[in-house]
Design goal:
The protein is of the alpha/beta class. 35% of the residues lie in helices and 19% in strands.
Length: 311
């Protein structure tokens, strides 16, 4: 198959990964840019294709909690509890890395980020490969994340060796990242598993401090080409729309009425704005509850990123 081909052949995807290739990889959160985590040359290609800084750690996807334990030199009680409760699922735990984990995967840190995805196709590939898959989102660094195989093709084209089509992502937002390497856990990135759910089972440190330790922690991320403005309600959005200059095209996107449904569509809607030549997307924020917190995080960072690239 030629590079950039979209297909549903899991055996071919496994063969490409075994041979040091890089593929578009479906999960329930977003599509990943995937390589065998044990192959440092292949992992380096992820950074080259994505244009990602090499000190940004990658998430290693695994097929089970049992497999995940082998990737840590000091598997913590908190990681065990969260993995048992929320895997397979949209949760990433950060733990002390095992000695044999490549520094390309960890961004040079002494910790590693691990996840078991809740996606039948992803798990089939992981079982067939019999190893971990390193995979950030399959898009250029800082841009809108992909939630379909077609998004991966549009962003990366023939730079990837194969795009495995597992259908549209059922959650549509990146995983929650929880640092389990210290005595008290910290949520470094909100995602598909809410703060409320996690705090019901473990105490959570409220303040995230220090430099970026995980994907998505930068102020600017997930950005479309168009200008992005976030507002509190539909009335505010309508008022803003009415003030647009005659030569400016704007579109209102309402994320407040059904946040769970909106999460599955948000990145597609932002991409559609760019495809349609919209100058400004005006997005109504959901309430900061449940997955609404993760949506707000992505939109605020996307707005910052869109503003930065317009200057």
């Amino acid at each position: 198959m030629k590079p950039g081909s979209i297909g549903t052949d899991t055996d071919h995807a496994i063969e490409v990964l075994r041979n040091g290739g890089v593929i578009g990889f479906p999960t329930e959160t977003v599509y990943g840019l995937a390589a065998a985590a044990s192959n440092s040359v292949a992992v380096n290609r992820i950074f080259e294709i994505k244009g990602r800084p090499r000190n940004h750690p990658l998430i290693v996807h695994l097929n089970s909690l049992t497999e995940a334990r082998h990737w840590s030199a000091d598997w913590s009680a908190s990681a065990e509890i969260l993995g048992a409760l929320f895997w397979p699922g949209p949760l990433t735990v950060i733990v002390t890395k095992a000695l044999n984990v490549h520094q390309e995967v960890t961004g040079g840190l002494e910790t590693v980020a691990l996840r078991v995805p809740n996606h039948a196709v992803a798990l089939e590939v992981l079982r067939g490969l019999e190893g971990g898959i390193a995979a950030p989102s399959a898009n250029k660094f800082g841009k809108v994340s992909p939630t379909t195989a077609e998004h991966v093709l549009a962003d990366l084209g023939s730079e990837v060796d194969y795009i495995l089509d597992g259908g549209p992502c059922s959650i549509g937002l990146e995983s929650t990242i929880v640092d389990c390497s210290a005595n008290t856990i910290q949520i470094l990135r909100p995602g598909g598993i809410s703060h409320e759910l996690i705090s019901q089972v473990l105490p959570v440190a409220e303040q995230v401090t220090g430099p970026s330790r995980a994907s998505g922690m930068l102020d600017s991320h997930y950005a479309p080409i168009c200008r992005l403005t976030v507002v509190a309600n539909v009335n505010e959005a309508q008022s803003l729309l009415e003030t647009q200059a005659a030569n400016q095209q704007a579109r209102i996107i309402d994320g407040s009425s059904d946040p769970t449904l909106f999460a599955t569509q948000m990145y597609s809607q932002l991409r559609q704005c760019d495809d349609d030549g919209i100058d400004q997307a005006i997005v109504v924020l959901p309430s900061p509850n449940g997955i609404g917190h993760a949506i707000r995080d992505r939109l605020l960072k996307a707005a910052h990123g869109a503003q930065s690239q317009s200057h």
